[in-house]
Amino acid sequence: MSGINQILLESGTNELEIVEFAMGPNKFGINVNKVREIINPVSVVPIPHAHPHILGIMELRGEVLPVISIERTLNTAQSNEPDHEKFIVAEFNQQKFVFHVHNVIQIHRISWSQIEKASDMYQGEDNPVLGIIKMDHSMILMLDFEKIITDINPQAGITIDKMQSLGERERSMKKIVIAEDSPMLRRLLKVTLNEAGFSNLTFFENGSDCLDYLHSAAKKEGSILEKVQIVITDIEMPMMDGHHLTKRIKEDATLKEVPVIIFSSLITDDLRHKGQMVGADAQVSKPEIEELVKMIDVHVK
C-alpha cells in the first residue's frame, strides 16, 4: 500500500475510516484523516540526544520530518518480519510526523458508535489507548497520537504559557461545556482555561454524553443560553464524534442558539468544510489554546 485515497464522507454522519496497522500480534488504528500516505521505510538520520521514541529524521519531497518508533512508544518487541514494516506519514496539529510500524493491514469504514471507551482499569492518563473497536476476529486499539507527540515534546501541546499573549483577564462564570475524550487533554484544557479566567467548566468524554446533558438542560425552565453559554468539542471521540454532535445541536430547535466551537487536531484546509457544513460557529486547531480563548470571547457575550 503506497498511498491513501481518502474518501470525504458526508459531514456529520458519525462515521470514519481507520487505517489498521500491526505491532507484533496486536492491532491498532489511526484515523484516515490523519494519514497523508503510507510508504516503505527509507533511510533515517539519527539525532544526538533526541527523545528515545524518535528514530531520527528523514526527507520526503523536500520536507524534513521526524520519525517516531511506535515500537518504542508502546514498548513492544521488534518485528519478526522487517520486510513488512511501513512508515505512516501523518499530519495533525498543523504538523507532519512519520510513524514507524510493523505492518499496515487495511482500511475500515466504521461508525464512531462502534468504538468503545477504554476501561477505567487501564485508561489512565499514561495509557495511549483511547478506545477499542471489536472486529469479527480481533480487537483494534485506537491510539492517542496527540498524547504520543506531547509525551515527546510537551511544548507541542496545550500549555499555560500560551495564555501570556492574552494579558491580564477577568474571572468569568460563563458556563462552558466541553466534549473531549483524551484524559490528558481534558486536564490541560481545564488548567489553561482556568488560567484564562474560565472556571465554570463541565467535561464529557464523548459527544453522546454531552448531547444528553444539553437535552436535560434544555428541559429546565428558562432559555438554554441561561444554562450553557458555549460548547467546545473535539472531533475524534468514541460513541459520537464532534461533527455529528455539532449537527445534532444545530438541528435541534431548543439547542441551536448555543455556539459551538470545534477544537481539534484535524482542522485543516481539506477538512474545514466539514465543520462548516454542520454549522460550527468557529473551528480552532489544537494546540492553539489562545485562539480558542479568543473565539470564546467572540461568541459569548
UniProtKB/TrEMBL annotation:
It comes from the Bacteria. The modification 4-aspartylphosphate is found at residue 234. Residues 15-154 form the CheW-like domain. It comes from Cytobacillus horneckiae. This is Chemotaxis protein CheV. InterPro entries: Chemotax_regulator_CheV (IPR024181), CheW-like_dom_sf (IPR036061), CheW-lke_dom (IPR002545), CheY-like_superfamily (IPR011006), Sig_transdc_resp-reg_receiver (IPR001789). Residues 175-301 form the Response regulatory domain. Gene3D superfamilies: 3.40.50.2300, CheA-289, Domain 4 (2.40.50.180), SH3 Domains (2.30.30.40). GO terms for biological process: chemotaxis; phosphorelay signal transduction system. It holds the Pfam family CheW. Keywords: Phosphoprotein.
